[in-house]
Amino acid sequence: MDVEKLKKLYDNLPKKGDFSEKTGINYSYIKKIISGKNNPSVKTLEKIADYFQVPVSYFFDEEESSKCSYTDEQINATIAENKMLHERVDELKDRVKEQSKTISILSDIIERGGREKRQDEEFSGAEKIS
After folding, report:
1. Between helices 3-11 and 27-35, what is the axis angle to 10°?
2. CATH code of 76's domain
């Protein structure tokens, strides 16, 4: 396995936590693979390849990776696109958080308004009885 290829892809990730979350491969294990201390199972290598949108053969020697139909430019373009998508996802997550806060505030306002209206009605009813 050509760990330099994996290292290049992994080091260019904007957020390493997202990789771990999506693949189920924790930081310390991927670092051991990159350093050559551990060899990944086929299943792990498939998860890595799927995440980076490359064939598993990409991670092997020149003879094997020459069978790969992806050029370095395509790989670099995929890395750049992946970064952009991760940034967009982060922006959308922030917007959802903001909107959730707004909904919570509006919900509280509506709930308070309903209580105040019921109290006003109860007070008006008490005045009519007197």
Report:
1. 140
2. 1.10.260
